[in-house]
Amino acid sequence: MSKQEVSFFWFRRDLRLEDNVGLFHSLQSKYPVIPLFIFDDAIVESLPETDPRVGFIHENLSKINEKLKESQSSILIKKGKTLNVWQALLEEYDIKEVFFNKDYEPYAIKRDVLISELLEKNSVLSSSFKDQVIFEEKEITKADGLPYTVYTPFKNKWLEKYKTMAPVAEYDSLSLLQNCFKRKFHFPTLEDIGFKESKIKVRDHNLKFVSNYQDIRDFPALDKTSYLSAHLRFGTVSIRKLVNWAFHKNDVFLSELIWREFFMQILFSFPKVVTQNFKAAYDGIQWRNNEEEFKRWCNGTTGYPMVDAGMRQLNETGYMHNRVRMVVASFLCKHLLIQWQWGEAYFAEKLLDYEMSANVGNWQWAAGTGCDAAPYFRVFNPEIQQKKFDEKGVYVRKWIKEFELGYGKPMVEHAMARDRAIVTYKAGIIK
Q1: 74 labeled binding residue
Q2: pLDDT tens per residue across span 17-34
Q3: In this chain's numbering, which residues are marked as the site (Electron transfer via tryptophanyl radical) (predicted)?
Q4: Is 253 annotated as a binding residue?
Q5: Rounded CA gap, 350 and 228, in Å?
Q6: Of 182, 334, 353, 367, which has fewest CB within 10 angstroms of its CB?
Q7: 104 marked as binding residue
Q8: 195 located within any domain
């Protein structure tokens, strides 16, 4: 019995049917398209069984599946080592073409090369597309073709190029869903793939505050942020639709979206930043790396209300306000002299919106070791930050239940810690 001739569209971090570039092109294939998602063992096996991000992925795959049912189709869900999954699919189907959207993280790049080589050996054409960014890889470079390492000129070049094509073309992938393979695949439960539902949930995004974003974004008690970051991370929203909208709404909000692409370009061009300082001159810093102090930072018991409120918000909800992220990161690296990699790893474990490029980029910014970073002698004072951005203590009281009962003393005195950090950095910087 001959095998069915098909094409595949491989969902990864683009969990939507609307304005999906790779999906759009796959649905114009000569062959019926099987939508596919793989729970990659290399990623999910290290996660706790109640990881809310897996639940969010599963929830959005379910939404995709329900929509596909309208055209008598469904999504094929697999779990395992990615290479093994594709080897099995090649045996089961006569695969003619495979389509997917690009991912720029180091592991994903290696994985995609491996799968593309497997497909090529089996005479299967693979095609990848730009989908999660407006400009990728080497599209925004200096005159000499080298990547920017300072944000402002990158932003200026980005805007200059965007204005020549605005609005960016969007892709009507929804109208082509009838070209999907007509079959109802089994849709697994969360338990089927080895996970359980978490009490922590990804919040819906909200754009109603964007018009005055620059006036409210630094005040955590207001809770008037977009909550877009997790949706951008997993591709449940289209970056093209969002940027085309934001361009006419708010320059500061748009600038934050450009920061995202700046850090993605840095990660692509300098993959060492995942574990190493962007500025090698900082490799000589003698970090204290006190494990007990790190635990207090993780648990939100440092005695600094702004720091502790942020860490407790993170631990309880998977979110932390962006202004507070800067304060807690500076505190770990400067006040406690614990190297940024420790904090970056903890955020990677807890943040619902964890994105490697932004997390690494922002941690290195706070530590002073990254590109376009805060200078090493800039040390946030958590008490001044609280007075400036949470003057009435609304935010800290929300997350520190015992605040009114007489809050504990700071674990380290600010002036001493600041001086210690500056001396340590200055002594450790390699000339």
Answers
A1: no
A2: 999 999 999 999 999 999
A3: 287, 340, 363
A4: yes
A5: 17
A6: 182
A7: no
A8: no
